[in-house]
User: Fold these one by one.
Assistant:
Number 1:
Amino acid sequence: MKGIVFTGNRQVELRNFEDPTPGPGEVVLEIKASGMCGSDLKFYRSAPGEAMKALGFAPGTEVIAGHEPCGVVVAVGANVNPKQARIGQRVMVHHYRGCGACPHCSTGWQQLCVEGVAEVYGVTGHGGHARYMKCPANTLVTLPDALTFETGAAISCGTGTAWGALKRMDLAGEQTIAIFGQGPVGLSATQLASALGARVIALDVSPQRLARAKAFGADVVINPTEVDAVAAIRELTHGLGAHATLDASSSAEARRQCVQSVRTWGKACLVGEGGQMTMDVSPDMLRRQVTLIGSWTFSTVGQKECAEFIADRGIEVDRLFTERWSLEQADEAYQLFDSQTSGKGVFLL
Ligand SMILES: [Zn+2]
Ligand SMILES: [Zn+2]
């Protein structure tokens, strides 16, 4: 089969790989949709091996990209409980492999494995940008019948990550949330927070992305290059600041504004990967009783809960995808995604 590989310095190649066969406890999926996630850009842009080192993973052999896999089970290995996987089942993948037995792995958080995450699919293990993908049966999450494979792909990282952050903040319907960055994760957060009943203030430096945020349920949009974002958020919230704020931009400036624009006793959450932030600790945090939360993706349980919420509320997650590509178009697909002006892309197989 052919699989997309990031070779570094904004180069992608379609390379040949052997079709996978499942070992004990494993399954093979036929991939139907494989999403493009913002964090892919780190690996796409960096010099060979650099981004992996920065994220704390040992640079390994070349792997098939894509960590938003969604498809159908086509082969089941030995010792797989039929309740975990059966041929023909429509599934998403919780895209990590840990030891499978430690306290974090056994509660569905294999990315937090005490032995260190063994594989992150699409980064240190073969991911979804190919016809077939092998993974442990205990990392599968059933895709509700009402959802398309594209929606399942989005939930498998970007949209699920937005859900995980909103749950970490216990966002409630009567609250106002300010969401910094309206890329795929931020826009998903806008869509989900709005569906939860919250009032959403969406921020981005791109007018196109702000227009999309409006269409996805944002009540107010703010371009921080045009106004003082913190003052604007306070003005929209009776001078108090938002109940919850979320940074999905990874910008140091937005992170500072994210903390400063949350109200006293409020919760600020960081979900964008990489980079640094600086804060004036006393006025920005201590003297206002601010809770600062770091949120990394979600558990298998959270992924299932997110999918069921989306199915039950009829949320149109497929609208996140602005481009649909074949594997052969990988080069064009990542060039466009790299420009950060478009929405989210997905490979359909
Ligand atoms: Zn573990
Ligand atoms: Zn991702």
Number 2:
Amino acid sequence: MEHLSSYADDRLVVGCIYCHGDTDTREHVPSRILLDEPYPENLPVLPACARCNQGFSLDEEYFACLIECARTGGVDSVERPKIRRILQESPSLAARITKARTVADDGEIVFKTEDDRVRRVVLKLARGHAVYELDEQKSEAPSHVMVVPLHTLAPHAREHFEKPPTPSAWPEVGTRALQRVAISMVGTPAVLDSDWIEVQEGQYRYFAIAEDAVMVRFVVGEYLACEVIWGLDED
Ligand SMILES: [Zn+2]
């Protein structure tokens, strides 16, 4: 990945990006459990506290394993070596995911997810992207969260999801979002044609924009589509 420094980091982002407390560690956003080795260079890194960092780790383990199982059909079909290792070392997690798996009458495999855990991880990832790209530190609850398997989106919804809205104004001075605009104008391919930032092909892509609202969309494992918005007026 292109390494972009944010001039605003020290000015706007205070303390741990999740709880604003003292920082004693750094967080990769997205977390490395969602990526395979070798890791891309210059992964986004943000300040965090150890308590938040550790507090998310079990949820993230569940989240990463669930997505890989849902994507491949089950615990026995997992392809990512890292996830296979985690499931071997944690039979209780493997058993939980297996228990959540049902096969519908039409043969479709459905996983009953632990929604609170999924939501915690999705929010954490969205908060990290909002800080890294936009210098927007969002501690409040978002106004909208969508988490849905990509393939279940209807064609028009999929088209809408894949196309980032065109901002009516340029991003804030000093943010990474503005630097990405500047770089794409001089021709260095820092972003995909579609304006998605690809962290690792097939594993993780995202974008974040701020206008009246702050919107983050990301896709995990080319399987799970997530959208988080802060500041949207609900009708
Ligand atoms: Zn914290």
Number 3:
Amino acid sequence: MSSMIAFGPVPSRRLGHSLGINNIPPKICTYSCVYCQLGRTKKMQVERRMFYNPQKILRDVQDKVKETRDPIDYLTFVPDGEPTLDINLAYEIDLLKSLGIKIAVITNGSLIWREDVREALMKADWVSLKIDSVQEEFWRKINMPYGTLQLSSIQQGMFEFARAYKGELVTETMLVRTVNDSEDGLGKIADLLARLKPDRAYLSIPTRPPAEEWAQPPPEKIINQAYHILHERIDQVEYLIGYEGNDFAFTGNVEEGLQSITAVHPMREEAVSDLLARAGGNWSVIHRLIDRGQLIETKYKGRKFYMRRLSARYTG
Ligand code: SF4
């Protein structure tokens, strides 16, 4: 019998085969992000408490692991709410480690100012922290945090955690049009990331109907700019943009190459030329994709870049 607590495994570009763990009932969170795919937060809270019996979580995950044929790369806490609200998170990670599979936690980081939360996250092999804005005004606007939360202590907690953490640390920044997509705002995020030194910083955009209708992705030109602003300060920046393989409907080597590269970052004109040369294609392929509206040509600091068409897919 499969349960509601363990789900998947789902293929994930970052985590391979990831078995999801839903350790929070829908939807209890410290934030009510305007882009949340789960709709508005039903119950906002910052007190940690017990939701499910840790032994039950272990049993459910164990059952799911047994019934899954493919190898599982990660057991991932990615609930319908904020995973660190679960007061037993550290204990659950300890229990799950007996299965010999790596553990990932996708958290908004809002409780990381607490030592017990940092200690729990320390136990995971891979942690993702949300950093949508380092400016109070925009943090409030995008994440709609619980009233007592303080951005400065959250950032302090992130630094403390990052300094001590031995696992793989990544960040996620969701770009919301006209809120956190300005050059200035992105520059400030880049400054923070340069100090935090995550192994990778991911950029994403709202691609499914968001909790608040006004939360829209920025245009491609801005998404490209965001990539470069971050990349100037930290080496590993990647797009994390919900992408179903057939959106692009590519065929052949050139298209496949473009598809896999532009899923991760924009491509410089020279890189496209190289790819065309290697794959025996020519620029007519690129022009065709641009005509079909699948590829976009954009500029940053006078150089041409190519990227997938991303924006505003669900609006219409
Ligand atoms: S932190 Fe995650 S679950 Fe909570 S509101 Fe934001 S997107 Fe939704």
